[in-house]
Amino acid sequence: MSQEITKDPFEFCDSPSLAPNDECNNNQINNKLNLLLTKIERIDKNVLKLNQLVDMLISKETIMEMALSSINADYIHTREIVHKTETSCLKLLNIIEERALSYERAIEDAAEQIQTITNKDGNNASIVIQSINDMTNGLFESTNKRKTSGDNHLSGFDSSIMQNCKPTSRSKKIRSLSSAPVQSPFRGPILTITDSSSR
């Protein structure tokens, strides 16, 4: 272990033994150092590119966050608009339902009033028709009564006249009788009865 520690730290596996002179060793060391520096520069460039890429990703993330925040704000605003619209629509629907119910009640009241007026008019018309029928029946009954009484008077007059009539002996057997004027209930003309027979 002590021998390995005392070895040159810049020694590589491809040089198992020391060079014959120091100049050769220095050249090898310089070349290797140059290679290391070149690799370090490449690493630095890659790190720089990575840093630039990270910055670009961060900026894109910031842009995405801003876009998301804007989208969220628009979404919230849209939700508020939708909520207000729904509330307004519900209010309008309630108003329309109330108006429809009021119109329906008004129509029902008007229909009931019309039905009541129609029933009253029908009752009045039936009463008028009944009174007209009663008046007509009364007139017909009074006319029939007067006609019956007049016929009875005429039949009484005819019987009395026939009883009082006597035949006369003339060249011509003519029996004629003129009755006196009779005032009938209908104020008719004078009644004259004539009876004639052949020889």
Structural summary, described in words:
The structure is a single chain. This protein has 2 helices and 2 strands, in the order H-H-E-E. It has helices at 2-5, 22-164, and strands at residues 174-177, 193-196. The protein has a two-stranded antiparallel sheet with strand order 1-2.
Helix proportion: over 70%
Main sheet characteristics: 2 strands, antiparallel
How many helical stretches? Answer: 2
Strand content: under 5%
Sheet/helix structural class: mainly alpha
What is this structure, in a nutshell?
The chain has 199 residues and is mainly alpha-helical. It contains two helices and two strands, in the order H-H-E-E. The chain is 74% helix and 4% strand.
Give structural attributes:
mainly alpha; 199 residues; disordered N terminus; single chain; two-stranded antiparallel sheet; 4% strand; 2 strands
Task: List strands and helices in order, with pairings.
Layout: H1 2-5, H2 22-164, E1 174-177, E2 193-196
Antiparallel strand pairs: 1-2
